[in-house]
Amino acid sequence: MSNPTASTVGSPDTGKPLSVQQHEQPAPKNQPEDLHRLNSILGHPLSGIPHEELMEMGASYALENGMEDLQDEFRKGALLAQSPEAFDTLPLLTDDDKYYLRREVTHKWSHPKDLYHMVVMCSMAAAVQGMDETVINGANLFFLKQFGIEHREWIAGLVNSAPYLSCFTVGCWLTHPLNQRFGRRNTIFITCFISFVTCLWQGFANTWPHMFVARFMLGFGIGPKSSTVPVYAAECSPPAIRGALVMMWQMWTAFGIMLGYIADVAFYNVQDPPHITGLNWRLMLASAMIIPLIVCFQVYFCPESPRYEMLKGRHKRAFDSLARLRWTKVQAARDLFYMHTLLKVEAELNKKSGHKLFEFFTIGRNRRAMIGSEIVMFMQQFCGVNVIAYYSSVIFRDSGFSVIDSLLASLGFGIINFLFAIPAVYTIDTFGRRFLLLTTFPLMGIFLLFTGFSFWIPDREARIGCVALGIYLFGIVYSPGEGPVPFTYSAEAYPLYIRDLGMSLATATTWGFNWLLSMTWLPLVRAFKPQGAFGYYAAWNAIGFVLVLLFLPETKGRTLEELDRVFEVPTRSHMKYGLAQVPWFFKRYIFRQDVPAPKILELEDIEYHQDAFRNGSKEMGEGNSV
């Protein structure tokens, strides 16, 4: 996701624009020269173009697309698209233009109300996602027994996991056609309407096959929405806050997870009226229909994605969308012209590339990105978090809690998961993806072992206290690590020309293993008891630590060209680096020896860029389509 703003700052060695030098770097081994050149140009599409030529390009673009009255704005916008940080030096800009451009830096959270309405809508859509996942948690305490599948673990697991089976097999793969045919807003409306209908439908289910079908259909809402909403937010947001807004998906999904637990507690004491059995769990499941209905009413008050409008050839409508989300027309012209330039390069890149799926394996840079992405996506499920998210009420009940106390204890986990997701927006770029995973995987494994072994404690009060403590500690360390890292890492690891396919693969991976995990938990507990089941996922956390140590390159603060070099490093070199970190850690932090940190020789000349991720979040919104 690293795409720094274009710059013409000269290199101290050559005096050439830095981006031009980067374009001139040789292609990575096994990567076609044309693909490498075009992928690099996507990072700096306007570098090196003289100002007069840029202004003419901007005016021509406005004239060709029915915006004759905006030619002056697009002349200014073209200059700013090349060097957005140099606005103070451009004489063409008025004092008002410079005032609002300066405020982007000094007051980066000051934006028109339409932008914040879009943020609220996207946040609520994320909450829909979380609530869809967790209202089933409390309902499990009631409907499994009512449907006669409480002791038929495979059937119970199939019903619980139905939405994720749907996402894996169908839902995720509908994302691209839905977005291409209907656009971002319509796709959000369609998926939220599906969530509304299916959540209501679940409340009327009277047999387990009926419940399975309703929940399977829910996956048609969950899958495409999980990809569309973050991309819609990215395509509408200003560069300075785009990364933060996209990453808020994780935080507000955690908020929705908490709301699901709240609904479980709120409807627990509802009594059955005549002729209705299980009204409490029916209301739990149906309560998740409220937020998607609100999103459906909200979404059309937000502008359509400008990128989608441009892909359909509606450039004036794209400008009108951006103008609602920026303070000035010059800012909208800058972002639209930059987007237009990227789309042209992307079109050329797509012509040059071969079969994209084949190139996942034949090009080493792409293959290593895929391995890294698949590791974090696989481990997001097999770290064990969704075992707790979906079955915590059953786990707490089996440890000795009463039913209502089980629901309250699950709510506690939801609150912790949300609260510790908030600082993750900052920690992911402060500490880096790899560091966070290497730190939290061992802790998650330890806390899962602690939770499982607590079931051997004979005293009831001590047992339930230790089980709750273990689960809460697990939630605390999950939220800043395997919570935000997988989607962030996957979005930035792939080169732009295959990123849409890479993200589809990543999303399908996480939902596929989500289905497998939720399907097998109850049979796993029956076969190996809670001690063995929690121990199983603790072992996977140990495996995750090793996989990250040996195979996961760090991507924090890397520019587009540097990411090509990072993933071009041979796997054996990165394995040697990872193995060397283990004795260094003990010498440095245990024995307090002053020893140099190990390095990857191929990357010694690359420096960390503090703002690369933030600026580079443009790439997700403007350099990639779902």
Automatic annotation (TrEMBL):
* Entry-linked PROSITE patterns: MFS (PS50850)
Give the coiled coil ranges.
none
Membrane-crossing segments per the record:
154-175, 187-205, 211-232, 244-263, 283-302, 375-396, 408-428, 435-456, 462-480, 501-522, 534-552
Q: Where is this region: Disordered?
A: 1-35
Question: Which keywords label this protein?
Answer: Membrane, Transmembrane, Transmembrane helix, Transport
Q: Which GO terms describe its biological process?
A: myo-inositol transport; polyol transmembrane transport
Q: Where is the composition biased (Polar residues)?
A: 1-11
Which GO terms of the molecular function aspect are on file?
A: transmembrane transporter activity
Membrane topology annotation:
Multi-pass membrane protein
The record ties this protein, via NCBIfam families, to: SP
**Which family is this protein grouped under?**
Belongs to the major facilitator superfamily. Sugar transporter (TC 2.A.1.1) family.
The protein in question is named Major facilitator superfamily (MFS) profile domain-containing protein
